[in-house]
Amino acid sequence: MRGAKGGVQRKAKEVYSSAHYIHCYAHQLNLIMQQATSHIPKISEFFSDLGGFAAFFSRSFKRTAILDQVVAHRLPGTSTTRWNFHSCAVNTVYEQKENILKCFKAIRDSGDFDPITVREAGGFVRMMEDDVFGFFLTLFHNIMPHVDMLFSQLQKRNIDSVYIKGLIKRFTSSIQTIRDSIPPDRSVQQLPTTKRRGLGHEEQQRLAREVCDTILSHAKERFSFAKHLISATLLQGDLFEQHSQTFPESALKTTVEAYPLLDKAKLKTELSLVYDTGQFRACSRAVNLLQFFLDNNLQETFTETVSLLKVLVTTPMATAEAERCFSTLKRIKTFLRNSMTQDRLNALAMLSIEKKLISSIPDFNTRVISRFATQKERRPVPPLIQCYLHG
Fold first, then answer.
1. What pTM value is reported for the model?
2. Is residue 167 pLDDT above 50, yes or no?
3. How large is the angle between the packed helices 41-58 and 115-128, nearest 10 degrees?
């Protein structure tokens, strides 16, 4: 998809030269977390061990029965592409750690299981009692809520580049706060001692700092607003006061180069007025600012600003909406509805996708039934069938 030379991006630009490619931000978040964990051997080992919890119980109904009896909570599995599954696993093991440890000990000491199960349960007991495992479990229990929050926000429908930039800023600030809470490394000369099996406290803190640094560096690289996305900084509400003192000339130049349809001089005049007006500063998102212009009939006065806002509002920042359409298609066109015509499939899909809009229309079902009944004459029901229907 993203291939700049032979991918779909390149083929689209051959037809539409002004088209801009945007990598789905929800997917990039998954890639950031994957980079932060897979390239550090000890962290990769931790998540591999964590995934073994659910795999251990899923292989046997007898083990699952013990889990339900002792923990009363199923352990979620992990996925290499969806990091919210890792988050669920981390949170569940962290919150149910004592009960899960009790469950493994019950399997190990009950004498009702085969030697392989006893050996694996004993290994999990030693793992959960290990200080290194507990340290990494606590670390990611603190990191994952911020990842989940950003991931859920990226799945929303009414997001725009201005809103995304604010979310990313809060996410990186949260990770930086966790990074700053880790004590700094102390360069102490190590005396030659016998090699220990586990990680020392200093090594644990170093790995924790490395995880946070990796997340921050990849977030800065992947979430950087380049070229056409820099235009979002022109209409970011919390920057209006700063822009009123120093106008963002470089961002304006990049925006006009990305969108040649905009008049640079007129756009600069309109933005200067927006930055100096307090009413506009209250609009923190591009959608809210555009709605403010429309509600007050200012679209004829701020023509270039409204045009830029429309571009920002309609620029997709994630593929979640398109993926929901595919999921809707799978629910509608089942095996029993395989002979459905294209027109009916499109209509049912639209009804399912826009169900919130339809639910807000008064008497929608009654109006549809009335229109259907008046479209064409139906054959009258035979008297015998009428008697059967009415009892």
1. 0.70
2. yes
3. 140
